[in-house]
Amino acid sequence: MFIKNNTKQHKDGYLDKTPIFQFLLLSMVFPLWAAAAALNDILITQFKSIFELSNFASALVQSAFYGGYFLIAIPASMVIKKSSYKLAILIGLVLYIGGCMMFYPASTAATYTMFLAAIFCIAIGLSFLETSCNTYSSMIGEPQRATLRLNISQTFNALGYIVGILMGKYLVFQEGVNIGEMMQTLSGAELELFKQQVLQHTLTPYKWLVGVLVIISILIAITEFPNCKPKAEGKAKQPSFGETIKYLSTNKRFKNGIVAQFAYVGMQVAVWSFTIRLALEMGNMTERDAANYLAYAFVAYFIGKCIANYLMTRISQENVLLGYSVIGIACLLYVSFAPDFSAVWVAVFVSALFGPGWATIFASTLQSVETKYTETAGAIVVMSIIGGAVMPAIQGLLADHIGMQQSFIVNVICFGVIFSYFATEKKHKATLTLARQSA
Predict the structure, then answer these.
(1) 142, CA 20 to 30 Å: which among 15, 129, 331, 404?
(2) How far apart are CA 374 and CA 366, in angstroms?
(3) What is the pLDDT of residue 232?
């Protein structure tokens, strides 16, 4: 190893201090999966036109993507348990590269199912990355700063969303071209040639991603990372998978966290999946112009995350998320029923309220379990990402029947679930504080 680790590990797996270089390198992985997620929002809009899909069918891009997370999270956690966080990260990066490479045959075959297969393969790699990186970021330092570390890493994630949407806008969408309108003017061989040319544009951002992924993989491979796993006392063995599942199934706080994360991811993905479609329906513009509004949404997401990070140094994370949830519910109600284009701008603003969601729910849920169950617990939290497969499909189905704008109402319910979770967490912590004071 060319870059050494100089930290000391406690028995619970946390460190005496955070190794700055390793933490920054770990955080650089976060924007890589965010870029892939942002590109999905571009692909949904493009595939809907090229393959002439319903809103529900186009949302299957997210189902393939987040379905991969759901299926692979547990195997990824077993790799971590048997080896290390570092190996799981490297495996994830290699699989991610392989999925990107599949876009070459997919663009040639020009079939929707082939693209879904490529997206699913990318998701397998990203499942390894999220299962390992989210848990590792919370563990790589002092325990009292676990949530702050994960929120900082997730701030890099926000930058990845911005880069991903800009890559999609400038490398996938063509300037001045409305795909749907252009297809209506063509037929026969000309139409097929146009479709092939449009699909070829999907390759370019994935070429860039492969280059970046190779560089990050090499840097991680030559860097020594701390183990960050609880040390077994004496002859004590690590709990089996069955024992872990039994423990987690009786942990009410953990189960509440899973439901909250499912709702959060589902809401975030659903809103972002249909922001471009909402702009196209409520304004007269091309796909490339409509992509600007999703780019603005990702900027809002980044700003909202930074503000939340600051607020959490002043007030409790529960109060921050409760406030964000109340404002979010009001905003999404406006998006669902406002009679003019202002609904699009409010849909952009609501992304600022997504900022602290994933990281705070993840860290809170993980801290509700004993550290010896951390690897599997972290994987199950990642499995709740399946919400990103379910909620966009539900919203797409609603959009086909009641209208795109009105379909955003489904996300109001999701924000309500998040509000309920943090209200319960606040009550739990208040009870613990009273118990300590009376002891």
Answers:
(1) 129
(2) 7
(3) 62
Residue 202 lies in a domain: yes
214 is written with which tokens? 């190779």
With respect to residue 10, please indicate whether it lies within any of the assigned structural domains: no
CATH of the domain at 140: 1.20.1250.20
Q: Which tokens go with 264?
A: 């959060």
Range of the domain at 28: 20-228+240-433
Hey, which residues does 9 pair with through a beta bridge? 15
Q: Which of 80, 150, 140 is nearest to 373 (CA)?
A: 80
Half-sphere exposure of 213 (CA within 13 A, CB side): 27
Q: For residue 233, is it within any domain? A: no
Structure tokens at 348: 């952009």
Q: How many domains, in total, are found in the chain?
A: 1
**Can you say how many angstroms the Cα of residue 369 is from the centroid of all Cα atoms in its chain?**
22
Closest CA to 333 of 323, 324, 343: 343
Q: What is the DSSP letter of 156?
A: H
Query: Which class for 259: exposed (0-12), middle (13-18), buried (19 or more C-beta within 10 A)?
Result: middle
Q: How far apart are CA 397 and CA 70, in angstroms?
A: 22
pLDDT value, residue 305: 86
Tell me, rounded to whole angstroms, the distance of Cα 348 from its chain centroid. Answer: 17
What is the mean pLDDT, run by run of 10 residues, along the chain of 439 residues? 77 86 94 89 80 80 79 85 90 94 83 86 90 88 84 85 88 74 80 83 89 95 88 65 89 94 94 91 86 90 89 90 96 95 96 88 87 83 87 91 94 96 92 80
Alpha carbon distance 97, 113 (integer Å): 19
What are the structure tokens assigned to 342, written together?
A: 């202002």
Q: What would the two tokens of residue 374 be?
A: 């951390």
CA distance 288 to 285: 8
Q: Residue 8 domain-assigned?
A: no
CA 12 to chain centre: 27
